[in-house]
Amino acid sequence: MKIDTYRITDGDSFSIRKFPTKDDGGLERYGEADLALEKNIEELARLQDMLYAHNQYGILLVLQAMDAAGKDGAIKHVMRGLNPQGVQVKPFKVPSAEETDHDYLWRCQPHLPARGNIAIFNRSYYEDVLVVKVHQLLEEQNLPDQLISPKVWKERYRQLRDYERYLTENGIVVVKIFLHVSKKKQEKRLLERIDNPDKNWKFSGGDVHERKYWEQYMDAYEEMIRGTATKDAPWHIVPADRKWFSRLLVSEILVKTLKNLPLAYPELDPETKSSLAEYRQMLVDEPSDRS
Ligand code: ADP
Fold first, then answer.
1. CB 238 within 8 A of CB 176
2. Is residue 87 within 8 Å of residue 120, measured between CB atoms?
3. Listed range (63-72, 87-96, 99-108, 281-290) with the worst mean pLDDT
4. How far is the CA of 127 from the centre of ligand 1 (A)?
């Protein structure tokens, strides 16, 4: 499956409204796509095991999307084969008073992946050029007045490019995914949350109000992707009207990312290696346990 068509490494000509939300990659859901997802989940488990043992690279998966685009479902379904010991999910919500008393990257830092680990950011520092831009929340961020100007967004894109380059140069691989859902499909999913009692808990009136700002969000996403898609930390625009397809694509992106890394199980140090036969014999020769 080709993921290049969904990957933006240079955002200059990126146009969000030209990008499909309903793509299915020409695949059949039942059979072909389901099978490919299962295969990727197995492959991911195998690669994660090696990532963990190798203990040099960390993976930062940044998931951004409009409400009901399927972030939670993608995490639940695509990551289900991973060893929980090596994966952490961090959701980013409205910042606390303590968080707004710091620069906007401060709250992300403790949640970056350790070497050998995968960290999943369910929303991220990108909210600070999305919701904060759409709703003009800069004043609530306690920034010095002199620093608040229309230039701030371009400055933040530059800061984020620099931050992600810093991470990349320190062995943290940054994988950015935007789940691209249509306004129509979002409406359908929000209605389901209202009509299906089992899904009521997911419903928030705020999500309905946010729909009024759809176009402003699309503009903010477009400018953000234009300003922060780089060769080292590209954006992947994943069509999200069909959940089965978006999950498959997310799994494919992760598999390809991990496969591109020079991962290997560490070799035993020569001394232990040369003594393996001896240790083996010691175990075999242990007196049998009578308890
Ligand atoms: P989700 O929609 O991710 O499942 P919630 O329904 O709790 O989770 O929504 C989290 C909310 O927090 C979103 O509306 C998001 O825009 C908001 N949020 C996240 N980061 C920030 C931020 N830096 N400033 C303001 N709001 C933020």
1. no
2. yes
3. 281-290
4. 7
